[in-house]
Amino acid sequence: MLKGIAASSGIAIGKAYVIREEENAINRYEVKDTEKEIKRFLEAILKAKEEIESIKETAVKNFGEEKALIFEAHLMILEDEEFKASVIEKIKQNINAEYAVKETVEMFEGIFLSMEDEYMRERAADIRDIGGRIIRALKGEEKSSIGDIKDKCIIVAKDLTPSDTAQLNREYVLGFITELGGKTSHSAIIARALEIPAVSGIKGATEILKTGDLIILDGVKGIIYINPDESLIDEYQNKIQREMEEKRELLIYKDRKVLTKDGKRIEVAANISSKEEVDVALKYGADGIGLFRTEFLFMNRETAPTEEEQFEVYKYVLEKMEGRPVIIRTLDVGGDKKIPYIDVGTEMNPFLGLRAIRLCFERLDLFKTQLKALLRASIYGNLKIMFPMISKVDEIKRAKEILEDVKAELKKAGQKFSDKIEIGIMIEVPSAAIISDLLAKEVDFFSIGTNDLIQYTLAVDRMNEKVSNIYEPSHPAVLRLIKMVIDNAHKEGKWVGMCGEMASDISMIPLLIDYGIDELSMSAPSVLKVKKEILKSVD
Ligand SMILES: C=C(OP(=O)(O)O)C(=O)O
Ligand SMILES: [Mg+2]
């Protein structure tokens, strides 16, 4: 038995599938026969071309000509004489082909990244992609994608990025075990939304476990059993049965409106990160969407979604929610949510770096495109726009000014948008909580992001399993800030929600209600148990 962190509740029993770290190191060595090495390089180019041609064909079939254009760009790079000449030049200096490609790719990447033109800057990602493909061809490796898993298994990996997790297919992935990551890492959050049980923080898991080992994964207790005996399997199979029954019983709360014993209405909403999750939110009786993490729309693709693509997603969510509140948060890239084509450079402390609204101010092109899409979609439902990582008054003022500029542009173009959109901010940085009296004057609502608020207040990395024991939601410093935020908002007549993971922590709910919280938003599968908990004092 191994103990880790209970990252996503639920139980899974199945065979392990161990993903070992890819051998990324590209070593430099001296080649004597440079002619042979050049031939090896040119063959790798041909192999890469064949691969891309075939991917392009599939892309045309599945997504149409336009989506396949990106591969046209990749083919052009492979045919680029300057690129090839640069690699060959290096090989002639007795450098091995892999290293020559790596150096050439880095040089071209640098050139593209320094260009003024947005389109050209984005081409840096293409060069990187192509470079990886040629190097894999040279090494004779195939690229495997986690989204391609087609056998029922429990994934064991050192770490899963949020974009990896978002690709997991629930039909096959029964659960996952990682060495790294905490309870509020985005991978854990996504796993909870997908109802995939997970345990993180199991040191050495990829070494200890072998593919094919039978595993019991207990995501409630945060433990795993390796090759358990029959009696333990029986015991856990019974637990799975009981869990399913409990879930069914909770359905009686689905259409209940939640009132406290003082008769105050509490909205119990769902957090989503894709349009597909709206159905899950409705299935579990969410009163609204309390947080749409839109950065996930930007993941696992080559370029940012266009205004039209985003508009379609927002419209879909708003229409599906049929007038219930839908809080859509603007792009929160950075920290553990990395997007290859949105370059923030190398950062010593990504969670303290160019993240969320800070990045949007640097990349007005992305920010304005998203705001336009949101405004246009606003006529299809009850949209509220929320800005992440606000840490001072100037930032919310600036964000609102940009929103006004975008509104003016739309008006000029004769495009319609609602005039009733509430504007809110995340309170997830201690400075924002401390000046919440001032910020409350600028907005219609707050939503407390406890995942970040806790990590920044207590100086405890939410991703680091080594300090997870001191990541303490009930620390008095955190509780004082939460109370202060709610009081300050209410003094200005504004409402306060909570969309961090604390919102579904049953042990904290009585206190939050006592503080006067107005809305709680969480992964959809937690909605019913939270409704039940609040109604317990009334029923
Ligand atoms: C809801 C939050 O935002 P995210 O988890 O996306 O950082 C939070 O910080 O609590
Ligand atoms: Mg946050």
UniProtKB/TrEMBL annotation:
Sections of the chain in a coiled coil: 31-58, 389-416
Protein's cellular compartments: Cytoplasm
Enzyme class label: transferase
UniProtKB keywords: Coiled coil, Cytoplasm, Kinase, Magnesium, Metal-binding, Phosphotransferase system, Sugar transport, Transferase, Transport
Active-site residues, record numbering mapped to chain: 186, 499
Residue ranges of domain Phosphotransferase system enzyme I N-terminal in the record: 3-123
Binding site for Mg(2+): 428, 452
Catalytic activity from the UniProt record: L-histidyl-[protein] + phosphoenolpyruvate = N(pros)-phospho-L-histidyl-[protein] + pyruvate
GO molecular function: kinase activity; metal ion binding; phosphoenolpyruvate-protein phosphotransferase activity
Top-rank taxon: Bacteria
Residues engaged in binding phosphoenolpyruvate: 293, 329, 451-452, 462
Cofactor(s) for this UniProt protein: Mg(2+)
PEP-utilising enzyme C-terminal domain location: 253-536
Pfam families: PEP-utilisers_N (PF05524), PEP-utilizers (PF00391), PEP-utilizers_C (PF02896)
Any one GO biological process: phosphoenolpyruvate-dependent sugar phosphotransferase system
Domain PEP-utilising enzyme mobile: 150-222
Family, similarity comment: Belongs to the PEP-utilizing enzyme family.
Name of the protein in its database record: Phosphoenolpyruvate-protein phosphotransferase
Organism in which the protein naturally occurs: Caloramator fervidus
